[in-house]
Amino acid sequence: MDNMVASNGTLTANETGTGRIKAGPSGRKPRRRLSRRNIIVYGTLIVVALYYLLPLYVMIVTSLKGMPEIRVGNIFAPPLEITFEPWVKAWAEACTGLNCDGLSRGFWNSVRITVPSVIISIAVASVNGYALANWRFKGAELFFTILVVGAFIPYQVMIYPIVIVLREMGVYGTLTGLVIVHTIFGMPILTLLFRNYFAGLPEELFKAARVDGAGFWTIYFKIMLPMSLPIFVVAMILQVTGIWNDFLFGVVFTRPEYYPMTVQLNNIVNSVQGVKEYNVNMAATILTGAVPLVVYFVSGRLFVRGIAAGAVKG
Amino acid sequence: MTSVSVRDLSLNFGAVTVLDRLNLDIDHGEFLVLLGSSGCGKSTLLNCIAGLLDVSDGQIFIKDRNVTWEEPKDRGIGMVFQSYALYPQMSVEKNLSFGLQVAKIPQAEIDKRVKRASEILQIQPLLKRKPSELSGGQRQRVAIGRALVRDVDVFLFDEPLSNLDAKLRSELRVEIKRLHQSLKNTMIYVTHDQIEALTLADRIAVMKSGVIQQLADPMTIYNAPENLFVAGFIGSPSMNFFRGEVEAKDSRSFVRVNDVAFDVTSYPARTRLHPGQKVVLGLRPEHVKVDEATEGHEVHPATVDIEEPMGADNLLWLRLAGQSMSVRIAGQRRYPPGSTVRLSFDMAVASIFDAASENRL
């Protein structure tokens, strides 16, 4: 290039031709496939991936085998004869205590617990976060600090007091009671999530809406909500998986007929009478874990985007 | 008739005082610019006038109505923000009409006002687009339109051009001026850009740490700055300052700076300069004459340090009286570094400040 400038734009054939390129490195830098760096990076990733996938493989394979095949003992071997019998049994026939209608009852209980809990907790927490981020009312910082501290208190500490509170309210042992508990315990982390997200949105948008005459709810529904899809997806995933996988609250705050799927799974796997039906247990476990798994797969990309959006600025 | 009147306004954030008993009266149809560096309280003052910040003390009147405790929407103001602040999920048309719909204005009236605003700002082809599909200049035009449809008396601009590139900024600057000339609304405009302030304003309020340093028309601000801060803030490159002492000889007065004595007899001083008084002499780079035959002015030799050709102008950095000073001359006049020039000064357009109080003498 220097040459071109020096010669004032008039190029001789010599300068434009390939003769200008000398021997030695030129163009794109070559990379070796099997460099030490690649071996370490891919090697580590493959080992970690196997570490996580192997148990899932064993579970799926075992759940598709009949009991005689399992007794042979080759847990890594693929099934010789594929059977869906264990899945059907886990869903519809497995026994917990006296009733033998399988996991299906627990599934519907979990749905009846998860859906209202997720909706109510997200609705309340998003309004909380919006109020804390945008309407700096007196004591806002104090409320926020209390909420954040709440996120660090171990659940076990609060179980007995909550049992008493629910009993006094007359909802102990009901689904309503459990929904209330899930809503309350989701509040600190969700409020934090929403507050940070809303605080990251341009403040001038909020000001512009106020000049336009919009009030608390108009700004929330018309301006903030339409901009917040990613964070709502994140909150939904957190809550669905958290509440679906919950065991402690399900066991403590409900009666056996309302036990969520996780509690029922535990009861099926740990029932002591008769032979241990490993294939049924494996199928039941996969069924219980299926809902969070599906949620992750469906909304995985939105999840990553939302986490970053909520976390970077706060 | 005053359009906006700020009386004894104070604002504290906890122990920090941002505005302290500030007074400001803005006439109807006036274009007032609040100018200052960041953190001087100019945006805070604008937010107080808009009602987006609660004041700690004092009053705000808009059109002779006390609006100190009113909500922003009830104050009769429209506001344009630096980041445009367009609602991202709404089309341009929705953005313009949102405030009117919130106010439950009949749809026919909304359509009429949106049509008028989009004609004035020439954004009719953009009405169906989303803000993300607009360029920066178009977005800011829509943001101005949002203030326009509100049919208000007072427009507030919070650094509206700061996010645009230099070319667009100068284009939109002219458009805002044209808009003001045709609408004749009161406009309060916050900026840190002195060119915007000087070109747009009827009056400029130069602010520093919550206090208005000088409130005057642009030419007065430029030619007769009230104190050292205003003198240094306005003008680019900034004014040359020489710290010295007043001397009197043969009924002429001088300011002595090291080995150079500037003859300031022709300076229109407000109060007499006393011999021995410590002062700061301010000379704008464009008011210094280089190698020109001037009658009645002293000539001082100086050496060229650095030359900065800028096309239309040529900026010379010289050494005089033991310090560096800049001089602006026409672009075609070139002086290589090291050459000696002869300077002369017109003291009628100079500024002299008291060294202690930093106020104009």
From TrEMBL, chain A:
Keyword tags: Membrane, Transmembrane, Transmembrane helix, Transport
Transmembrane segments: 39-60, 113-133, 142-163, 175-198, 219-244, 282-304
Region feature (Disordered): 1-30
GO biological process: transmembrane transport
UniProt domain ABC transmembrane type-1: residue ranges: 107-299
Xref: InterPro entries: MetI-like, MetI-like_sf
Compartment annotation: Cell membrane
Alphabetical list of Pfam families matching this protein: BPD_transp_1
Record membrane topology: Multi-pass membrane protein
Biased composition annotated in UniProt, kind: Polar residues: 1-17
Protein name listed in UniProt: ABC transporter permease
Organism: Sinorhizobium americanum
UniProtKB/TrEMBL annotation, chain B:
Molecular function terms from GO: ABC-type transporter activity; ATP binding; ATP hydrolysis activity
NCBIfam families for this protein: PRK11650.1
GO biological process: carbohydrate transport
Protein name, UniProt field: sn-glycerol-3-phosphate import ATP-binding protein UgpC
Similarity field: Belongs to the ABC transporter superfamily.
Membrane topology designation: Peripheral membrane protein
The entry's keywords: ATP-binding, Nucleotide-binding, Transport
UniProt GO cellular component terms: ATP-binding cassette (ABC) transporter complex, substrate-binding subunit-containing
Compartments reported by the entry: Cell inner membrane
Gene3D superfamilies with a match to the protein in the record: 2.40.50.100, Nucleic acid-binding proteins, P-loop containing nucleotide triphosphate hydrolases
Pfam families linked: ABC_tran (PF00005), OB_MalK (PF17912)
Matches recorded under InterPro entries: AAA+_ATPase (IPR003593), ABC_transporter-like_ATP-bd (IPR003439), ABC_transporter-like_CS (IPR017871), ABC_transpr_MalK-like (IPR015855), ABC_transpr_MalK/UgpC-like (IPR047641), Mo/tungstate-bd_C_term_dom (IPR008995), NA-bd_OB-fold (IPR012340), OB_MalK-like (IPR040582)
Organism: Sinorhizobium americanum
